[in-house]
Amino acid sequence: MRRRLFAIAAVAAATVAGVVPATAQIAQPTVVSTDPVDWTPHVLDGTVHAIAVVGETVVVGGTFSAVETEAGFQYRRDYLLAFSAADGTLRRFAPRLDGPVYALAAGPNGTVYAAGAFRTVNGVAQRGLARLSVATGGRVGSFTPSVNWGDVRALAASGRWLYAGGTFSAVNGVPRLALARLDAISGAVDGGFDAALTGRTAEQRVRVEDFALAPDGRRLVVAGAFGRAAGQPRAQLALLDTSGPGAVAVNWHTDVYQDTCDAGYETYLRGVDFAPDGSYFVVVTTGNAHGPYRLCDTAARFNVAGPGLHKPAWVNHTGGNTLLSVAVTGSAVYVGGHQQWLDNPHGRKSAGPGAVPRPGIGAIDPRTGKALPWNPTRSRGVGVRSFLATPGGLWVGSDTDQLGNEYHGRIGMFPL
User: Fold this and answer.
1) From which residue to which does the signal peptide run (predicted)?
2) Domain boundaries, the chain
3) What is the pTM of this model?
């Protein structure tokens, strides 16, 4: 508990000072418990897509409309809610949005950035991006970015910058296809940073499905529907140098996602996360395909060091079931989706030789790529949409209400 309170105090001090805390995965010394805490509220409908911690408050975003406290009281909460990180007490935070929230990031001075498919915030037109006071739910009027159409589905904050990715093609009228870097205080588009993402074909609709910022803020790994990034061929996955004034494609690439998994998927990459030390990242995929030599329905580790072509350090196969989310904590790689198994390269939506059951959620050894014994289970549904590692444990957001063999409505936390 002391480590958790220290981390909360550190985030609170940074936000009060007006410094945007970095969006980076927290290192954890051990694998989390299989027994979720009992005090989290229950989201009663829809899906939890995003989780952020601001000071002593957990903020949750998604497609829901109602929440129930552990004491049994129900409240209307459309797309956003907040509660105490210590005991689950529901906050009065209730901004009025007219559409879903897909991504969140802690902001300065007790605020949170929200992104999604909304068009208005508290009655004010502002499409896809907003900054909100966690104490009041009020819109921060000095933060004014707005996307032209589509949605924003990925956010990462670091220092003076906020990165946003999704399906848009412009922010504040400035052309930015699916990826932009914004001033974290004003929301103004960084005029020098343009990843220049383009499709694999002229007909492909470019989008960023997910991205992850390295802990030092100098690298951004981007996953989505594209064929080139910053002028270089990069099929579905690109590593960008973000340390300078522009977006530069790092001399790092892989060819393992050039193959298609299903003609219906413009991209089958679904999630990516950096390790806390920045030395590697892990990508998870869907695909509706099978086989030990394809990266459909897999988790794959890629080391960052070294120039040129990179192959995965390891690949873990589900045997034909989708993985949607990943969190890398150093001691484990947590994966969530609607998978039934891990360690299953020869399965075809069945348990092949060596497969281990890991319904809906599991953990992988970051060194060997094999499933760890951790197996709390969850009702599978569509899958886990959001992980957030903190010094106190692992937050999980999804679309179902069974986690660790207990009732937990769409949000829960496994403590260390």
Assistant:
1) 1-24
2) 195-403
3) 0.94
